């Protein structure tokens, strides 16, 4: 503790008489941070939705549920898409709507078979815009090898939406012998990322905010089911898969660490970060570890499988930049720590809501 | 944006660290003034690499941390008013005023927008002539010139629906106040490079002479920080106290004279309250008489609001370097980034937030208490 300080002279700046506001209470209404993928999102799900729905399937808190139906193991997932702008370098809300759900299913080891697609359209949106989105959605579905089997359309009054919202849900079969979930991470496991991180978030930010970073940053939006299939060809014993979308790599790794009760130790120098993303993050005061991805996965695998899994990833067009970035450790369970390039350590925490650009 | 990798080169960093170790023979306490430097130090673990006894004291140079509570409350009140578009840089949105923040105002229907430049706010004003557009102009000498330019442009283009809520502060008076504090332990300063890129270095030699402290103008990348520390400990060991510029790629002696002229035209010096410190004479800027029409405080007639304040938060002592963040009783328990008691826990540049994020390993008792 600091030693007792002298009483300040009221005529001078008071260095010891600091007071500050009472803490913010839990928000009585929804704030944007509840959708940011960080702690606020997790608390909303954990304290409001899960108790209301109360069933063991939700306790895994995974991106998709694995259910048994008629003797088959199905992965089942849903996702809503509210992105602005609707079209961005490297994709559109239509691409995201397919790939987001395909990837959520893939993180359970499932190959997506069928999707549903719900459109919520705002009155006044040009049909040509809706048509482009539908075309993109169809193209993305064909690329991912998934069939849009059912759908729904609703229209809301002008001013009551944001142009176009899309929801997709999907199902796919989980192969026999596959058990991929966050709780399976154990000390000694190797953490792999399938490629360059932070690209999608910076691509969206560059067009949404009109911030230029010298060269165009193109979203990495892509279906990952082929990449997962390539990994499963090497070993069925993948422990954890996660696609680090909202909240980025840091948030996904924290979720894994907490679910499995392990520590995760990253090595900063191993993180594959494109120069454009590093520059943009330096410019805005953001950390690439927290920036969203839409075509990357994190894999946690047994050390004896790491080389083969890494090679399988690197042999696939979507995994050429795959890299080992860290390992699971018995220390600091539930926490993610990174070794800095200078050999020091720092904690990589879950963000509260969304990252906020710094003032200076 | 070049040289990011070069200025984080671990081989060069080790050389600088070795030189620092070879130079230091006794304990020293130096203050990095700028919150951006604090962030770099903690994020890269630079202070873990320094010799035992060489202490980095985190200074009051985070614009978010030192923005006074009453200004936040004025912002909340203005942003709540119908017809207002309230524009701000991102990290001000979570700073708690009296029980609310700008995110809360937004959730209640207020039109609160994150912008990346004050000129974005001016553009919004031009595009929405029926709305009152306010930009939250806070920060040090670094952010003041673009805000001044924006008000200048608003006047020049006769954009009457734009105004600035201004709470700008200046570094040199704060250095004086810190050195004259009865409990001051600071023996040297790393001066904020970005501030000096605007203002030059001419304000610092009188401070170095008066208080007998080395002042080294320092950049923000890891190697910049280490080079600044090396020059500082070299001076301390030799008993010198001069101003050195270790950030010559960005800082000239005279600074940005065009920016200084803009500041002189648009702003005037004023006494300014600093959160955690109190009133420091002549330490701030406000809009000058010529630009009073663009001052949001006058336009919206916001009044001071009585505030109920925490009795346990010791941000002021943290800001002054009297204690480390984890020495505050509330750190990591009552006070976390999720429920900040003080602005030092809110801003990503705040010393408490930096310690919470990056240092909980060293305070395991905190870890168990964080839900």
UniProtKB/TrEMBL annotation, chain A:
Residues 187-332 form the PurM-like C-terminal domain. CDD domains: HypE. Residues 63-174 form the PurM-like N-terminal domain. Belongs to the HypE family. It comes from Kribbella italica. It holds the Pfam family AIRS. This is Hydrogenase expression/formation protein HypE. It comes from the Bacteria. SUPFAM superfamilies: PurM C-terminal domain-like, PurM N-terminal domain-like. One of its GO terms (biological process) is protein maturation. InterPro entries: HypE, PurM-like_C_dom, PurM-like_C_sf, PurM-like_N, PurM-like_N_sf.
UniProtKB/TrEMBL annotation, chain B:
GO terms for molecular function: 4 iron, 4 sulfur cluster binding; carbon monoxide binding; iron ion binding. Signal peptide: none annotated. One of its GO terms (biological process) is protein maturation. Keywords: Iron, Metal-binding. The keyword Plastid does not apply. InterPro entries: Hyd_form_HypD (IPR002780), HypD_1 (IPR042243), HypD_2_sf (IPR042244). NCBIfam families: hypD. Belongs to the HypD family. This is Hydrogenase expression/formation protein HypD. It comes from Kribbella italica.
